[in-house]
Design goal:
With 81 residues, this protein is an all-alpha fold. The protein has one domain (4-76). Helices cover 57% and strands 0% of the residues. The protein has five helices and no strands. It is globular, with a radius of gyration of 12 Å.
Length: 81
C-alpha cells in the first residue's frame, strides 16, 4: 500500500524503508524531505528518528518556512542544528 504522503509515486512501505536504510544519499534526503513536509507529525516518527534528521538537517531541501519550524523545534529539543 502506498503511504498518503507519496501520492504521486508508486512506492510501498517496504520500498520506503529500503530507501531510508539504503546507501543512496540523494534518494534518502529526498524521501526524508517528503516525509517531513507532507506526513502528519505523528506519522513522521514511524519512518524517521530525530538523530537521523539532525545528522543531515543542513542537507535537507525543505521549503524555507518548514525548515525554519523544524530548526526551531530541534533546537527546543536540545539538538542544535
Amino acid at each position: 500500500m502506498r503511504p498518503y504522503f507519496i501520492w504521486d509515486y508508486d512506492l510501498n512501505e517496504k520500498q520506503l524503508h529500503s530507501i531510508l536504510h539504503g546507501n543512496n544519499e540523494t534518494e534518502k534526503l529526498w524521501l526524508m524531505t517528503r516525509i517531513m513536509t507532507h506526513a502528519k507529525f505523528e506519522d513522521i516518527w514511524k519512518y524517521l528518528k530525530v538523530e537521523d534528521i539532525v545528522k543531515v538537517f543542513k542537507k535537507l531541501r525543505l521549503p524555507p518556512k518548514i525548515k525554519q519550524n523544524w530548526q526551531y523545534t530541534l533546537n527546543i529539543w536540545g539538538y542544535h542544528v
